[in-house]
Amino acid sequence: MSLLGAAEIRELAAQLDLRPAKSLGQNFVHDGNVCRKIVRTADVVESDIALEIGPGLGSLTLALLEVAREVIAVEIDSRLAQQLPLTVAQHSDRSDALQVHNLDALQLQSLEKDPTVLVANLPYNVSVPVLLHLLETLPSLQRGVVMVQAEVADRLAAKPHSKEYGVPSVKAAWWADVTGAGSVSRTIFWPQPNVDSKLVAFTRRTPPGDEAMRKKVFMVIDLAFAQRRKMLRAALSSLFGSSAAAESALQSVGIDPTLRGEALDIQDFCTIAKCV
Ligand code: SAM
C-alpha cells in the first residue's frame, strides 16, 4: 500500500481543481508517516471497524486500511467523497474494506456496521460537537484518537482547577476518559493552518447516568460555565429560582455554593443535577 505524500496531494488537488474550503476545515495531511503514527497511537487492530470523519483526500484512510478490518468514512464534501474510492483503488488492494458516506457527521444517526474505533483529523470548526455527537450516537465506539486544534485538545483533556477546564472537558468526561496524545507539526498540512494541532485519545467509560440524567447534567454544566467568574449560587440561580434557593440546594448535597464550575468534576455535576 502506498500512502499520500506531498506530490500525490498536489496532483489530486489539481485533478479535482480543489480550492480547500476554510469553512470546512480543509487542511490535508501530506505525510504518510504521521498518518501511520496516528493509527498506531489509536491501537487499531485487525478486528477493528474504524470510523473516519472527514477523510478528505484519503491520507489517513489509506493508513487505516493497512490495519483495520473495515473503514467507514464520512465526508461532507461530495467531490472528496466521490474521489475517495478511486484514490483507494489506485493505492491499495483494500477497496472492498472501505465504505464512504457523503454526509455531515453532525447528521449521522446510525450506520449499517458498528464502528469500534474513531480515528480522524477532525474539521477544526466543529471538532467538539462532532466528537460529542458520535459518542452519544454510536455506542459501539469504544475508543479513538482525533487530531484537533491544540487549544481544543487541551480543553478536551483538561481536569478540574485548570484554566483550560470547561464545557468540552466535562461533557467529554461524561462519555469517556480523555487524554492528550501528542503534538503534530503544522508543516504536515496543505494548506498550512495558522494554528497548531494535537492528538487526543479517548476510551469510553460507563456513563454516570441515563439519557434523562445526561440532559440535566449538560444543562447544569452549560449554566455553570456560561459566566466563568460567577460562583455556583449565582450561576445556577435561574435553575433553582433564586440565588438563595441555589445556595441551600447546593449545601444540601454538600457542594460549596461559593465554588465556580471549574472546581467541579463530572460526578459533582451529577450530584447537582440530581437535586434539580
Ligand atoms: N482526513 C484528511 C487528512 O487528514 O488529510 C482531511 C482532514 S481535514 C482537517 C477535515 C475534513 O473534514 C475535510 O475533508 C472536510 O471536507 C471534512 N468535513 C468538514 N466538515 C465536515 C462534517 N461536518 N462532516 C463530515 N466531514 C466534514
Give descriptors for this structure.
two-stranded antiparallel ribbon, 41% helix, elongated, alpha/beta, 276 residues, binds S-adenosylmethionine
Structural write-up:
The protein has 276 residues and is α/β, with parallel strands linked by helices. It is built from 12 helices and 9 strands. It has helices spanning 6-15, 32-41, 59-65, 78-91, 127-137, 150-157, 167-175, 211-226, 232-235, 237-240, 243-252, 266-274; strands spanning 28-29, 49-53, 70-74, 98-101, 117-121, 143-149, 176-184, 189-190, 197-204. The strands form 2 sheets. The chain has a 7-stranded mixed beta sheet with strand order 4-3-2-5-6-9-7, sandwiched between helices. Strands 1-8 form a two-stranded antiparallel ribbon. Helix 2 (32-41) crosses helix 3 (59-65). The relative contact order is 0.11. S-adenosylmethionine binds next to strand 1 and helix 3. Residues 24-29, 53-57, 59-60, 74-77, 80, 104-106, 121, 123, 126 line the site of S-adenosylmethionine.
Give a topology summary.
Layout: H1 6-15, E1 28-29, H2 32-41, E2 49-53, H3 59-65, E3 70-74, H4 78-91, E4 98-101, E5 117-121, H5 127-137, E6 143-149, H6 150-157, H7 167-175, E7 176-184, E8 189-190, E9 197-204, H8 211-226, H9 232-235, H10 237-240, H11 243-252, H12 266-274
Parallel strand pairs: 2-3, 2-5, 3-4, 5-6
Antiparallel strand pairs: 1-8, 6-9, 7-9
Helix pairs in contact: 2-3, 5-7, 6-7, 7-8, 8-12
The structure holds S-adenosylmethionine.
S-adenosylmethionine (SAM) binds near residues 26, 74, 77, 80 and 121.
Order of helices and strands: HEHEHEHEEHEHHEEEHHHHH
Averaged pLDDT, please?
97
Structural class assignment: alpha/beta
Strand order, main sheet: write it out: 4-3-2-5-6-9-7
User: What's the total number of strands?
Assistant: 9
> Oligomeric form of this entry?
single chain
Low-pLDDT segments, ≥5 res:
none
Report the sheet-strand fraction: 15-25%
